[in-house]
Amino acid sequence: NFMLTQPHSVSESPGKTVTISCTRSSGSIASNYVQWYQQRPGSSPTTVIYEDNQRPSGVPDRFSGSIDSSSNSASLTISGLKTEDEADYYCQSYDSSIWVFGGGTKLTVL
Amino acid sequence: EVQLVESGGGLVQPGRSLRLSCAASGFTFDDYAMHWVRQAPGKGLEWVSGISWNSGSIGYADSVKGRFTISRDNAKNSLYLQMNSLRAEDTALYYCAKGLMSTIDYWGQGTLVTVSS
């Protein structure tokens, strides 16, 4: 099975833009959709991006997703950072019946 | 309103068994795949197992394969996770989650499993 590797933490100032990467260890990143979940302390996760770059209703367009086959990675970009964006973010993908989550990235907005 | 309510967690000794349940409501249960995802204290999310709408396709994480069994009863709108040969590293909050194609669109609040002597 493959692994998804994320940076442990990132930090940025309010109003700025931050990008979180998610690198697939084996198999093509483009072969299966990538999702991104946000988890605030004490809460269940929620989806912010699904199918590589789709936003669920209610998620602001400050959130965007992309994939890069050359680096075999996916990215979550959050622009116009707000303090409420401070949370843990997880990427997720799958291969056949096996799903995999990345290790998570703690976003600090300071 | 979609609701997923987990139950069955608790304190259990290493090597023993536990069965988790998830009661689903607010959607047509037998139209969707379902998953169990766990989160150890202070750690990240780990997918445990998933089951298709008709139980025809099932998958497990390597860490639980051969010890855990996922099942569902569509007549009862319920999802289950039978956990055998439990280990300390299985200690976690276990979430029941509703699948939607390649993603999870609803999560329960979780049930805590603690494996300790």
Characterization of the model:
The complex is a heterodimer of chains A (110) and B (117). With 110 residues, chain A is an all-beta fold. Helices cover 0% and strands 47% of the residues of chain A. Chain A has strands at 4-5, 9-12, 18-24, 35-39, 46-49, 63-68, 73-78, 87-95, 98-101, 105-109. The radius of gyration of chain A is 13 Å and the shape is globular. With 117 residues, chain B is mainly β. Chain B is globular, with a radius of gyration of 13 Å. In chain B, 38% of the residues are buried. The interface between A and B is medium-sized, with 27 and 24 residues.
What key attributes describe this structure?
heterodimer; A: 110 residues; mainly beta; 6-stranded mixed beta sheet; 4-stranded antiparallel beta sheet; 0% helix; globular; B: 117 residues; 7-stranded mixed beta sheet
